[in-house]
Q: What sequence folds into this?
């Protein structure tokens, strides 16, 4: 497997990177054991862990779900992936999983953190099947135009929102943003979406959310019904929208601590 080449029409420079405020991509990278994070990210990450130790179970289970779902989609014949809010390429990442399951699978990763884009620049060139686009997911037309350089939207695409829509406030209408992407997809495409939930420890998660806001980061865990609305009425594949550890677990049985991962995930077919 080869590494991705970068692509962005606006470009990014180290000067664009605010290291003094925590950024979700880098906080998440810290939790996953990556090295692309700064003191403000680590301080925020450690504070969240002290407050909510279940966060580690949550991010690990979310990543394991992502791997299972991508493999499932490759098995279903999908060869194109549009990974919105892709994050830093902490391994195993989307292009690694997709291209080992389906060599030649095309992957466009989209994120608004300039570090994600610069990271892609530092990787060896030579992978014509992967692009990194620095963009805000709310700029739907811009993202689709950039992704269209690599992806053929007349053919099925897996549209991925893995653990990123909880970084949008209600005022952005996350379900409406997903809907705008869905209109660009051909029949036979899939929507793969996971989202943090506040249902298991409302007080602690809301306190974490408020603290994140004070530090300049948005994190809004939501209830199952709110997450379901983001599927915009599409029919979910079995087992529906469930805690990610309960979605087609390896060996068929969820781990006993599956309910420590507070994130819902599901896959729907267009
Ligand atoms: C929790 S991480 C998830 C990363 C990856 N999808 C995964 O599950 O491993 C959320 C990602 O969403 C990105 N993000 C947040 N708001 C965004 C926005 N408005 N546009 C694009 N990306 C955004 C963050 O930079 C971060 O990389």
A:
């Amino acid at each position: 497997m080869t590494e991705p080449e970068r692509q962005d029409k606006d470009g990014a420079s180290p000067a664009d990177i605010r290291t003094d405020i925590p950024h979700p991509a880098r906080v998440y990278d810290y939790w996953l054991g990556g090295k692309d994070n700064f003191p403000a990210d680590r301080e925020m990450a450690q504070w969240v862990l002290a407050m909510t130790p279940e966060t580690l179970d949550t991010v690990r289970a979310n990543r394991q779900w992502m791997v299972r779902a991508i493999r499932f989609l490759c098995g279903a014949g999908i060869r194109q992936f549009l990974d919105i809010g892709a994050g830093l390429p902490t391994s195993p990442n989307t292009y690694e999983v997709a291209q080992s399951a389906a060599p030649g699978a095309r992957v466009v990763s989209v994120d608004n953190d300039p570090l994600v884009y610069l990271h892609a620049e530092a990787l060896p060139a030579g992978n014509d099947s992967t692009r990194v686009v620095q963009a805000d997911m709310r700029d739907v037309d811009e993202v689709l135009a950039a992704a269209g350089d690599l992806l053929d939207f007349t053919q099925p695409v897996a549209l991925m929102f893995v653990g990123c829509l909880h970084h949008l406030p209600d005022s952005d209408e996350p379900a409406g943003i997903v809907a705008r992407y869905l209109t660009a997809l051909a029949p036979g495409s899939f929507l793969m979406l996971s989202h943090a939930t506040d249902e298991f420890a409302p007080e602690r998660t809301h306190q974490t959310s408020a603290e994140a806001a004070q530090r300049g980061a948005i994190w809004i865990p939501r209830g199952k019904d709110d997450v379901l609305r983001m599927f915009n009425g599409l029919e979910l594949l079995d087992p529906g929208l469930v805690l990610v550890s309960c979605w087609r677990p390896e060996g068929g049985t969820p781990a006993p601590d599956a309910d420590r991962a507070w994130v819902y995930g599901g896959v729907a077919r267009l």
Summary: Confidence is low (pLDDT under 50) at residues 1-12.
